[in-house]
Amino acid sequence: MQRLDRTEPAVSDLAKRQAILEGPKSTWAGGLTLFGGAMLVIVGILELLQGWSAIRKDDVFVAAPNYVYALDLTTWGWIHVLIGAAAIIVGAAIVKVRTWGLIAGIVIAAISLVSNFLFVPQSTWWAVVMVALSVALIWAFSEVISENRQLGQLGT
After folding, report:
1. Which domain holds residue 111?
2. Low-confidence ranges of the chain (pLDDT < 70)
3. pLDDT, position 58
């Protein structure tokens, strides 16, 4: 294996570490880190907006009768605001290449996925979009962690 002589700045420290290997998978992992972190920040902003709308008891949400997970709309709003704030913080940590951020990103995306699944009766299409984004984030962060393990660099 030969080292690449790169003079241009890498997108992140993770991309620099992975640039020691030539091949498309290393590029993917570095790109997924940036993509995942940026997407988690976007998901966080969307969660905040969704939560704020629910707290204000906006007319966009429909009350579902006889729903097992029926919570007050304000409660759902605060749940989404807290998830959104955590997602923004963790997304920023991932973009700044903090190893803990990848694990935390998976956890936050999973929590977002579950909360939006439970929120489907109140806002069907929006919740489905948020579930899809959460699944994409879990995949992206898992792929980066897998690449790091293959490179033997997780935790360094």
Report:
1. 39-58+67-151
2. 1-30, 58-65, 67-70, 151-156
3. 66
- Token pair of 17, please? 């570490």
The per-residue DSSP string of 49-63 comes to HHHHHHHTT-TTS-P
Place of tokens 């409660």: 75
The pLDDT of residue 63:
65
Is residue 31 a part of any domain in this protein?
no
Is residue 91 one of the residues assigned to a domain?
Answer: yes
What's the total number of domains in the chain? 1
Indicate left, alpha or beta for 43 from its phi (over 0: left) and psi (-120 to 50: alpha): alpha
Nearest-10 crossing angle of helices 73-95, 24-55: 150
Residue 57 — left, alpha, or beta (φ > 0 → left; ψ -120 to 50 → alpha)?
left
Residue with tokens 């498309």: 24
User: What pLDDT is stored for residue 123 in this prediction?
Assistant: 78
Number of neighbouring beta carbons within 10 Å of residue 57: 12
CA distance 145 to 9: 22
